[in-house]
Write a structure and sequence with these properties.
Length: 301
């Protein structure tokens, strides 16, 4: 299988590339700096400007699947007006460029996997967030709506499209994991804010496994929540992490101590709702790490 990945030099992209290459597939990664991109051995780096199909568009004729992971990391601080526009542009422009390239291709790819996030459902809300739950009205929710819509036209071209609304991906290299891990390692771990806010998560192995499942399953289409079956609040997540790292759990930070320095970005830590992988479970996907304790033990044990 020939696979083209945007955002392939990022955390998920590199893991997905290694997995595909390990099974004998061929991978092309679109990157702004092919000469400096750190990619798994065997991947082919292709230059792009992040907004148009110029220079790489014809490659689509050779692809069986496209995985669009492009998007500036929202964990970057602070969230200035200019940076929020970068979050938006990096996602929307990438989707539009892929749509344009697919439209021009004589041979269309079989599938497009369009990344998105569970923040689509809003940071607050009653009931479980499932795939049919309406979008929220906060900034992050609106961002995911635009992100998903950017590549929607390929469906009219006969391309099977899957939208993956991903939770926080558990990997030791993830900057979010590093930020949560540090105070615990320094013996000042504890809940953040009330601790009652949900923290949807998924192990990297299941993130990659799900994306590959969608690439290879001809019946998979539409939206899927990429989140582990076991729900966890912020308090339960950090308590389990502290237990895994064999550290105490006692120094609880009130919300204002995070919202003052982080500003709007603090919503990533202080707010969150319960998300359920309803369609992924119904599709028969088998999680390698369905429970938080097993997932963290795999990473830190």
């Amino acid at each position: 299988m020939n696979v083209l990945i945007t955002g392939g030099s990022g955390l998920i992209g590199r893991a997905l590339t290694r997995s595909l290459l390990g099974d004998g597939h061929k991978v092309w990664v679109l990157t702004r700096s092919p000469d400096r991109a750190v990619l798994p051995l065997g991947a082919t780096a292709v230059r792009w400007d992040g907004r148009t199909p110029e220079g790489w568009g014809p490659l689509v004729n050779e692809m069986d699947g496209i995985v669009n992971l492009a998007g500036k990391n929202t964990s970057v601080w602070p969230w200035t007006k200019a940076r929020k526009q970068e979050f938006w542009n990096s996602r929307v422009w990438a989707g539009q460029a892929i749509t344009e390239a697919v439209r021009a291709a004589h041979k269309k790819p079989q599938a497009l996997i369009q990344q998105s996030g569970v923040n689509h459902y809003g940071l607050r809300g009653e009931g479980d967030g499932i795939e049919s739950t309406p979008a929220g009205d906060d900034y992050l929710a609106r961002l995911t709506v635009a992100w998903e819509f950017s590549s929607q036209p390929v469906e009219e071209m006969g391309v099977r499209r899957v939208v993956t609304r991903s939770a926080v991906v558990l990997a030791r290299e993830n900057i979010i994991m590093k930020l949560m891990e540090l105070p615990i390692r320094l013996f000042v771990g504890g809940r953040l804010g009330t601790g009652k806010q949900y923290l949807p998560w998924i192990h990297m192995a299941d993130e990659v496994g799900a994306i590959r499942f969608f690439l290879e399953s001809e019946r998979a289409r539409g939206t899927f929540n990429l989140v582990a079956p076991e729900s966890s609040t912020n308090d339960a997540f950090l308590r389990t992490l502290a237990r895994t790292l064999k550290r105490p759990y006692w120094f609880h930070l009130p919300a204002f101590m995070l919202s003052l320095p982080l500003g709007e970005m603090s919503v990533l830590i202080l707010e969150g709702r319960k998300i359920v992988p309803q369609r992924l479970t119904e599709a028969g996907f088998q999680f390698r790490f369905p429970t938080l304790s097993d997932a963290l033990l795999n990473l830190y044990g």
